[in-house]
Amino acid sequence: PDGFVRSLRVRGDARGQLVAVEGEREVPFAVARVYYLFGTEPTARRGAHAHRVTRQLVICVAGGCTFDLDDRGTTTTVRLDDPAQALLIEPWVWHEMREFTPDAVLLVLADTRYDEGDYLRDRRAYAEVWGGTR
Ligand code: TYD
């Protein structure tokens, strides 16, 4: 699990905390897109897909949510609830998000612009690619 999650440097002083994320430094790619999820229903499940080429770095900058990850058969569950931690989601990692707190804000940095053709949304088709069955 810790292989996916990395700690970010927090620059704090008496005024409070600041985290900076620079392309090709804290995030190991050039950032092409930023998006964020907020106001997520606590019972909602989001994601449930993998990407063919897109790499993403996810930071839960407020609140918390749980990621279920499946890297071609290796499954992990990660609770993201610390703005100083980042989850790197590589291509072909199936990811689903659940148990959002009402205040959760999920910030995502991606190395591609949005392209629906990059999504694998069919779990069975995803599994067939690597020879799994789930
Ligand atoms: P969706 O893929 O359903 O979100 P998730 O899989 O994370 O639960 O995205 C919701 C809508 O937002 C959908 O109409 C596609 C659109 N969208 C964009 O236009 N650009 C983006 O970068 C993303 C991530 C989604």
Order of helices and strands: EEEEEEEEEEEEH
Low-pLDDT parts are none
Distance between the termini: 20 Å
Strand count:
12
Cα gyration radius (Å): 15 Å
Averaged pLDDT: 94
Structural class: mainly beta
Spatially, the strands of the biggest sheet line up as 1-9-6-11-4
Shape annotation: globular
Small molecules bound? thymidine-5'-diphosphate
Helix count, per DSSP? Answer: 1
Q: Please describe the biggest sheet, giving its number of strands, its sense, and whether it closes into a barrel.
A: 5 strands, antiparallel
- As a percent range, the share of strand residues is over 45%
Helix content: under 10%
Task: Write up this protein.
With about 130 residues, this protein is mainly β. The chain has one helix at about 125-130, and strands spanning about 5, 10-15, 15-20, 35-40, 45-50, 55-60, 65-70, 75-80, 85-90, 95-100, 105-110, 120. It has a 5-stranded antiparallel β-sheet, with no helix packed on it. A 5-stranded antiparallel β-sheet has the order 8-7-10-5-12. Strand 2 (about 10-15) and strand 3 form a beta hairpin. The longest helix has 8 residues, at about 125-130. The mean pLDDT is about 95. Thymidine-5'-diphosphate (TYD) binds near residues 33, 35, 46, 49 and 114.
